[in-house]
Amino acid sequence: AFPSFTPSIDLETPRFRTVMTQTEVTATCVVHSAYDAKVSWLLDGKDPTSRTPVNQASSTTQSISSNLTLPSSQWKTLNTITCRAEHRCFNSTEKTSNVKG
């Protein structure tokens, strides 16, 4: 059996000024895990629509980076954004950020 290992998650959200001056904003989630976890996003607790572009790349064997890009107009309506990491070798782990201005 694999040792129980819960990944740590860093969630970076765009600055207020960026949201107010750019037409699109990007949130970045970095999952630090020895496993190739699946990273997913929740907007206000719901799965974003399939039209929302999500890029996931394994930058190293120890971390996975995922970017979520949204129109600023949609970002301004959000209350929370959540990044979730899932893998069969550990319980799903998530980090939520309150983004309401």
Automatic annotation (TrEMBL):
Residue span(s) of domain Ig-like: 7-100
InterPro entries for the chain: Ig-like_dom, Ig-like_dom_sf, Ig-like_fold, Ig_C1-set
UniProt xrefs under SUPFAM superfamilies: Immunoglobulin
Pfam families named among the record's database cross-references: C1-set (PF07654)
Biased composition (Polar residues): 50-65
Domain of life: Eukaryota
Stretch list, region Disordered: 45-65
Name of the molecule in the record: Ig-like domain-containing protein
Organism of this sequence: Oncorhynchus mykiss
